[in-house]
Specification:
The structure is a homodimer of 166-residue chains. Chain A has 166 residues and is mainly α. The structure holds a DNA duplex (30 and 30 nucleotides).
DNA sequence: CTAACATGGTGGACGTGTCATCTATTCCCG
DNA sequence: CGGGAATAGATGACACGTCCACCATGTTAG
């Protein structure tokens, strides 16, 4: 913080956008999670994992790959997949080419539960989000989000400069 | 689900916007939390509570009010404030006019920690989010988010129709 | 007045996410 | 080839959030 002689607080417009976005996200995630839990035995993270797995023709994926695709830390993926294995939604398969690793594989039950949950989930995403916005707004949101994300990837070094570490 | 003869899956554009937004939010919240933790002893929820409290002239607020302002459930607020009290960031004050209730009050320590953390936090919000977008994009985001939020509030009944409870 | 109901808040159980640390393997460079 | 660095993953401790059941107080209608 030494280098910041003056703080540039957020303007009213900036703050409004920032707050609205945070509230929207909070509400959306909450409703989505609740809807899934009520209509199926799946949590939202479960759902995301199952979607990722069933997107593959062989319904399997290395653990670290899953973590990458979902943007999760490896540890999180490990914990979560462990729980899903316990509930019979996925199983682990030793990997021949790399004896450190595993494949995470969807089970028949996992597939069934995903197929049962997907229509309701998509309908909720539509009802709460997609159908509330014009196509133009959707594109604008997508552009903005991707701009922010792009900045993230480059600034993997900017994270460690004086502003952040103080 | 009985009434949905056909599922309207997301189009590529819709899915792209939805995904990008989710990833953006995940990354932002993660970085924000990490930055706060590294630069201060505060978690992100701590920060939000302290901001809410210090926004009041008397630095205090009823627990249920805090929950409303932050969009939290009462239980969450109760748990979190409890932890903050343990760490000396806030304290509880019996309420005369309603003997069931409490005021949550910022302590001097809470104020100090917030003031120390705020500049770095705001700088991070700027670096990762605000400064990546044009004013037009910010407004568009704000409008879109508020449109989605508005829909939430009305549809407190639509939540319980056939699509959700199945 | 009092019985029913609503509201403010607590507490525990559970699932989830993060961090730090650890082991086993594989990669790579001299 | 040998040895250090990177990688795959597991694990334990902890903070966080949700749900649900619960208590105490307040409010309201008959």
């Amino acid at each position: 913080m030494k280098f910041m002689t003056k703080v540039r607080w957020l303007t009213a417009r900036e703050e409004r956008a920032w707050r609205a976005l945070q509230f929207m996200q909070m509400r959306l995630e909450g409703e989505l999670a609740r809807q899934l839990a009520a209509a199926s035995g799946l949590s939202y993270p479960d759902y995301l994992v199952l979607v990722a797995l069933t997107d593959r023709p062989d319904g399997r994926m290395r653990l670290f790959e899953l973590a990458e695709v979902l943007g999760w830390e490896k540890s999180r993926a490990s914990h979560h997949v462990g729980r899903m294995v316990d509930r019979g939604l996925a199983k682990k398969q030793k990997c021949d080419s790399d004896r450190r690793g595993f494949y995470v594989v969807v089970t028949a039950r996992g597939r069934r539960e995903l197929e049962a949950a997907a229509p309701g989930h998509v309908a909720t995403v539509r009802r709460l989000f997609v159908d509330r916005l014009t196509p133009g707004q959707l594109d604008a949101l997508g552009d903005a989000a991707e701009a922010v994300l792009a900045a993230f990837d480059q600034s993997a070094d900017g994270q460690r400069d004086g502003r952040v570490r103080a």
